[in-house]
Amino acid sequence: MADPSTYRPPVGTIPEAPGVYKFRDAGGRVVYVGKAKSLRGRLNSYFADLAGLHPRTRQMVTTAASVEWTVVSTEVEALQLEYNWIKEFDPRFNVRYRDDKSYPVLAVTLHEEFPRLHVYRGARKRGVRYFGPFAHAWAIRETLDLLLRVFPARTCSAGVFKRHGEIGRPCLLGYIDKCSAPCVGKVSADEHRDIVDDFCDFLAGKTDHMIKRLEREMSAASEELEFERAARLRDDLAALRRAMEKQAVVLGDGTDADVVAFAQDDLEVSVQVFHVRGGRVRGQRGWVLDKVEDVDDKVLVDQFVTQFYGEDVESVPREVLVPEVPDDAEALQNWLSVQRGAKVQLRVPQRGDKRALMETVARNAAEAFGQHKLRRAGDLTARSAALQEIQDALGLDTAPLRIECVDVSHVQGTDVVASLVVFEDGLARKSEYRRFAVREGAQQGDVGSIAEVVRRRFQAMLRENTNTGPNPGIDPETGRARKFAYPPNLLVVDGGAPQAAVAADVLAELGVTDVAVVGLAKRLEEVWLPGEPDPVILPRTSEGLYLLQRVRDEAHRFAIAYHRQKRSTRMTASALDGVPGLGETRKAALLKHFGSVRKLRQASVDEISGVPGVGRRTAEAVFATLSQEETKS
Prior knowledge:
Strands 12, 13, 14, 15, 16, 17 and 18 form a 7-stranded mixed β-sheet that branches. Strands 9-8-7-10-11 form a 5-stranded mixed β-sheet. A 3-stranded antiparallel β-sheet has the order 2-1-3. It folds into 6 domains: 4-89, GIY-YIG endonuclease (3-Layer(aba) Sandwich); 95-204, no CATH class; 206-246; 257-374, Nucleotidyltransferase, domain 5, CATH 3.30.420; 380-568, UvrC, RNAse H endonuclease domain (Nucleotidyltransferase, domain 5, 2-Layer Sandwich); 577-632, Orthogonal Bundle (DNA polymerase, domain 1), CATH 1.10.150.20. A hairpin with an 8-residue loop joins strand 4 and strand 5. It is α+β, with helices and mostly antiparallel strands. It has helices at residues 39-46, 55-63, 75-89, 137-147, 158-167, 172-175, 189-203, 207-223, 227-246, 297-311, 329-340, 352-378, 380-394, 445-464, 497-510, 543-573, 584-594, 597-601, 605-609, 616-632; strands spanning 19-25, 30-36, 64-71, 105-108, 117-120, 129-131, 257-264, 268-277, 280-290, 319-321, 345-347, 402-411, 414-424, 427-428, 434-437, 490-494, 516-521, 526-528. It has 20 helices and 18 strands. The UvrABC repair system catalyzes the recognition and processing of DNA lesions. UvrC both incises the 5' and 3' sides of the lesion. The N-terminal half is responsible for the 3' incision and the C-terminal half is responsible for the 5' incision. Belongs to the UvrC family. Pfam families: GIY-YIG (PF01541), HHH_5 (PF14520), UVR (PF02151), UvrC_RNaseH (PF22920), UvrC_RNaseH_dom (PF08459). Residues 259-507 form the UvrC family homology region profile domain.
């Protein structure tokens, strides 16, 4: 592990100009590429206190052995150079916004004399118009099958086209009127191109004009008593309408946009993109990636745009709708405009249909993220492997079928709370979750808080297991398990060596000897055993590490939720501090009864005095105080 101070550039030598930088390891390989408005400000942040860095960032700077940079004139140049270097060097610490599979598109070969419609995957070519991407190739074929009766364009390969031209007979599609058979001269090249142009116009969103034209032709054929032709046009209209139903109109103004949303936690990010062309959702993409730095949506948008539209120039839409606009939005817009060859807007939708669609994409990102985690958690084989890996790595006698995790949450030492989550057989048991309001231990920081929570949890276990009977862990009155009756096989605490050591000391003090203890540090995902000078390092791809991370993250989420609830209750309860004679007990009773101060303000004196323990005089004082505050505001 390298010390970043050994290769830190001398103070004052880093320019303040915009540019792109590369971190290299001892072997000279590029491990990370980034850009900055000010190289000095950005690079200095990497050489700050290591303890304050994101775990992956810390790993990156300790893996690297040198840093170099290139100064550029504008932010647009920095964007382009960063993308080119990421593509060239494929650095291990850069997030790559790309799919693990290729998505099919509907290609129209306009550069050919007789354009062809076909399913296509791969790099974009000049002279070919693309529609999509679609989630599945069958979706394209289904759409084509509906539209070919209205737009009978060529779909065959060059070899088939040439062969049928030589034998003078069309293929089956030509006989059933799903191809105009240009191979045998049924239509001229110009007539066939008109059919293809109408097809492209329809897929581009110009549907109303097409529908009205066919309706006029059907009426005219009916008036001229050409009933067979009118029936054919009627069937064509039905086919067009069925095709339109498969691609629901979401935006009425023919919008050409990509809608992007994210869902993330400390380690991963889920990306969802909806491709809207001609006001319709033509395709959807989504994938989950590991995060390299602790970044917000602004930085994610910046990274996504530069990488997603770097190669696929023809897919750049007129608008890119994002959850937040990054700081260098103007440079990104200019770069996208150069890529597309026309003006591109990068913005956050504020209201209307576009805002509603953005919310839909965000829900899809969150759902995909949840499904991604559930797929891994729900896989029995993976869970069994994870428990076995943990047993082997920690030297346990048996697999840890019951794992408990403790996490502490606070803001600068105030409103200190803790959570205890339970996983059995690798799955969360939410009914067993517990939360704690930390009291004495809060004065000693996280270590003291963890000691208090562990002590309270296992004291309760010892107390409940002193009951006599065949099943001391079962409440004889309810028949249910007592809250803390069953010990875990493994206790995980959020933190490093100090947190693991204090938890082990508490268990030893209480005489609990059959519970293993580890600390899971967020920095480098190290597993610390009490009394050991070095941590246990599980492979990054280890299912055992993933399970421990999931347990830790769930404890963190549960603790944060309780902390926010407690802080919110304290802040809203402050509105009642000025009421004479109203103590904490009755204040809590009022908030519990009405749910919030806002609803309490709407209550009458009679309703307030109806709360158990609150007399008429106190109710009048509460009503008067809240009324005065409302008048002032």
